[in-house]
Each structure stands twice: as C-alpha cells, then as structure tokens.
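Let's practice the habit of predicting before peeking. Look at the sequence and jot down your guess about where helices and strands might fall. Then scroll down.
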Amino acid sequence: MPDQLLDLISNKDIFLQLFNLICILIAVYAIAKIILGPKRKKSDQNHYALFGEYTKYIPNIMCYLRFPLGGWLFCVYYFSALHTLFFAVTFHFAFALICLFDFLDGKFARKWNAITEDGKSLDPAADKWATFCLAVTAFMFGELRWWVLFIVFAREIISMLQRMRLRRKGEDASAKWLGKLKTGVQFTALYIIIIRSGVLPDTVFYEMIAKILPDGFVLWGMILLCFATIISVFPYFKSFSYVNDYTRSQVKESPRAWYIVMIPNLFTVGNYLCGVTAVFFAMPEVEVAYRPFVCLFWILAAGFCDAFDGPLARKLNSHSDFGASLDSSTDLSTFGLATAVIIFLRFSELRGGLSYLGIVIALVYFVYVHLRLARFTVLLNQNTDKGEKHDFVGLPSPPGAIAVLIAFTFFNNIFVLSILIIMISLLMYSKLDFISHSNSINQPLYRFLLIPATFAGFFMLIGLIFQQPFVTAHFVRELLVYFRICSWLLAVSMFIYILDAFRRTYVKS
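Done guessing? Here is the structure:
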C-alpha cells in the first residue's frame, strides 16, 4: 500500500486528471446554480424567470434525463470503441449529472411549488434505472458478486410490486427516506467497483486511489450496500412501519443546531457500521483467527453505540424524530438482520456447507427481533411521560444479539446452538421485566458487578482483537484462554441479567 501511494503521487498524469476532475465539478456546480435559480421573492411564486410557465415541468425533465445518462454509463463500458480518454471523461460527467439531478429534482420542486404526482413516480423509477445500469456494469466488468446483484434486483422488484399494491389501496407510495439513503450508498459503492475495473483509461485521480483499495474493503462495501438495500424495502410493509415513520420521539424536536443534533446520530450510524463489520468478519472468504470472538466484539461495540446514543440525545437536548426513526432501523439492521446473517454463516461453517437449519434458525431469530422492536415502538408511543426512561418488556434486541454471539464462543454443536437461539428469541418477545441501562446504574447489583464486568470483558476484547495479528505462535494458546475469559465475563453478566428479569417479574418485593 505505501509503495502504491508513492507511485500515485509520482504519476505524471496526476495534474491532468485533477484538471479533468475540477472541470467536471465546475460544470456540475454551474448547472446546479442555473437550475436552482435565485431566491423566491414571494411565498406564492411558482414561476422561475428562466423557465417561465415551464417551471413545473423541470423536475420531471431532470428525471427523464437520468434515463439516457444511465444508459450511457453502460454503453461506455460495453462498446470497446468508446474506451478512450474523452469518453471516459463523459462517463464521470454523466454519473455526476445523475447524482446532481437526483438531488435537485425534489429540491427544485419544493422550492418552486412544482411537485406533481407524475414526479413522485418518475423519481424512484429514474433511481431504479440508474441503479440497474450501474449494477449490471459493475457485475459484467467489475468485481460485483452475484448475490449483491440478486439482492439489488430483488429489492427493486419487491418495492415496485408493493408500490402498485399501495396505490390500488389509495395509500402513500412515495419514496421513503431510507430509500434515499439506500440510493446514495448504492451509487457510491457501485461507482467505486466500476472504476476499479481498469477497463477505461484513468481520467480523474481517484480512479487510481480506488484501484489500490484492499479487496477486503471492497467486500465490506458490498455488504454495506446489501444491508442498506434490504432495510430500505421494509418501510413499504405496514408491519415494519417503525423503521420509517417519523414517530413522535421521547420529547419534542430539539431547537439545537444541526451539528449538535447529529452527535447522537453519529453513534447510531456507528452501531450500523459495526453490524456490517461483524458480518464481514463472519464471511468464509475473510481469513481471521478466532472468528466467533471477533464477531462478538463488533456486535458488542454496536451494542455500546446503541446504549449511548439515547443518553447523549437527552444530555445534549438534541432529540429529533429522524434520529428516533434512524435508531429503530439501525437496531433492526444490526441486532436483527446482521445477527441473523452471522447465525446462518456460522451454522454453514460448522456444517461444512450450506445449512438449511441455519436458514430456519436465522429466520426465526430475525422474526422475533422484528416483533420485539414493533412492540417496543407501540409501548413507547403509549407512554404518557415520554421524557421518562421506562424499563423493557422482554429482552432488548442488543443483549439478545450479544447473547447469541456469546453462545458461538462456547458451543460448536448446531443443535445445541439452535436450542439456545430459540430460547433467546422467545425471551425477546416475552413479558419479562428487564431493567433499562439508564435505570440499572441506580441498582447496586448492576453498578458494582454487572456493568463493571461487562466493560471489563469489552475492553479486554478490544486489546485482544487488535493485538492478535502480532501474537507469535508461542502465545496462540494463551490468547485463546484470554478470549474465553472475556466470554465468561460477558456470559455470567448476561445470565444474571436474565435471572434478575425473572425475579423482577415473578418475585414480589
């Protein structure tokens, strides 16, 4: 990697490539300024002087333009006659225009009162077409895996059918905010995979940067793309409305500046990225020692991020309905979907091939996480005092996911693991009274025993995970012993937490 960076810096064409990039950025900026136009002088002003009576058609025109631009992205790679410097520049320019028009069409429509029913359908259709062109190009000429392509196409087909169903019932079928985030993640990941292929000559300097990225990083990006794609389809189903609706959060919207409001949301995003990383290390093609412990570490890190985003929001008075909705979708992604994928991959690894039992157990676990989160949202909305932190009904999904990963560090028998995972799933949807982490600090059992033990196990894992590449063969056995000590600290804390829930539920004080 350092030698490749030095070659990149010493490349004589770097200045020409930077010049090409600057020209593209200037052109895109000028187009954006022209399209958006000046500030509206009156609140009821509907016509932009440059477009006059055609103002209301401009957002739809930007949607229509994304169709030929998407087709051009594929054509530049498919036809060898277009593999020249000039057409390579047009590829990057076309991609920049697609991103620009995707951002500007809605902004322009809201600014100039040009929102139409046709536009609500055209915008997601244009996004699907651009994604289709990028995905096929990345699969044919890049290193996109078949399962990523399948997930992308399946998501678009399911969302299209569900939109048709919602329209027939007269319900809202417009694009959801998770869909917008999904499009951004897809465009970025697919674009990087395409420019890594080396089919076109280098025309902007970050093509060379993309080529020296580790293969593992690209695989991680594809997993991130898959998770964003899968989670974005759930809001089109009523039972998953909690991952999309801007439910009334614990208190009213915060008046604080946007960068203060973003601080707890950064922890929520960290939760999501830790879940993706856990799945990355569970992949069979990723060579890693002590795989169950590494996956446990990243899910545990996600749990800590989840534990701190809410208290931070309350401490900074930076609540937002978007943050509350983002937190619900992230919990479903990390502690539901990611953990279910790890269950399947671990079962398949233990079996030495595809495990159908692993598929069933993973689905059972995911369904119970979904039911637990849906019930949690309903109970949260029923609370009269939303500023007060209430205890949990049923095992929370973060401890549930951690419990599953702890089981993988102790057992290698898939039937024993199946029984344990089903029991954990049932605990999540039980009526047991589990104390919340905010209230647990006031209890001596948690303050002086369970919380210190959990932190000790986590920080020991941090040290062990990041020093294991430097451990010599003489200390491999000792390192495994230290890993097991961490698991025992976490397992005992989890067992006492569950026992305490039974005591709180059935033993009268």
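How did you do? The first strand starts at residue 392 and ends at 393.
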